[in-house]
Write a sequence for this structure.
């Protein structure tokens, strides 16, 4: 019998998930109605699995699929402007073979990096509820346990930082107490993987200049430095 790929098995189960009625209804409504610019495309309209190198040492954690981005394309941070920013930065940092991410078949490959999110279905207004975050949490925990070489986690936004804090507590590497506040560029030691904080590359942040490409590059430079440092490297609490 062929060996079972644990990540592939996880993703096969994940894409069938219907735990959250509000999210199921929204993702399917968006997929049926579509945006005019994508009217001829078939939307994914399901939970979005993680994407990248299964032997990655760097794990990037966002928030949730965009309604007309990953909910359309079926791949994390693919098909929207947030993804444009992220993949350009990953390419510059040497973690991606190309700077664009348009569709699942565009040839993009990640090197030593894996991208995921705490919520796998597109939420209305990009705001999942606490109950929805809790319902989705086991997927992230199971996925993280399969990424056995993970050494650095980049959190894109405060929600990602909160969820990664819960995740690391569950796997025995909690954030220090008192927990350092989320701040762009902050590096936090855990005794396990280092955690690097970044503003999310949402249009709200990039259009206003709150996040620049240089700032995002600096985050990935810090992540690269952590990969080369002793396990658990990072700043302690304030």
């Amino acid at each position: 019998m062929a060996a079972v790929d644990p990540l592939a098995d996880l993703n096969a189960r994940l894409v069938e998930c219907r735990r959250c009625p509000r999210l199921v209804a929204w993702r399917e409504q968006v997929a049926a109605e579509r945006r005019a610019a994508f009217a001829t495309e078939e939307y994914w309209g399901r939970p979005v699995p993680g994407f990248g190198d299964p032997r990655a040492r760097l794990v990037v954690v966002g928030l949730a699929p965009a309604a007309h981005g990953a909910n359309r394309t079926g791949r994390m941070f693919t098909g929207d402007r947030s993804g444009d920013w992220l993949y350009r930065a990953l390419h510059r940092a040497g973690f991606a073979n190309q700077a664009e991410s348009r569709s699942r078949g565009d040839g993009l490959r990640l090197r030593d990096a894996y991208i995921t999110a705490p919520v796998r279905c597109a939420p209305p207004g990009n705001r999942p509820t606490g109950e929805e975050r809790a319902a989705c949490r086991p997927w992230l925990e199971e996925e993280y346990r399969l990424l056995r070489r993970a050494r650095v986690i980049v959190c894109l936004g405060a929600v990602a930082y909160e969820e990664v804090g819960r995740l690391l507590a569950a796997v025995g590497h909690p954030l220090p107490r008192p927990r350092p506040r989320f701040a762009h560029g902050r590096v936090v030691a855990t005794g396990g993987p280092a955690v690097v904080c970044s503003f999310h590359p949402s249009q709200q942040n990039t259009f206003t200049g709150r996040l620049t490409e240089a700032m995002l590059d600096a985050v990935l430079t810090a992540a690269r430095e952590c990969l080369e440092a002793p396990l658990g490297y990072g700043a302690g609490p304030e």
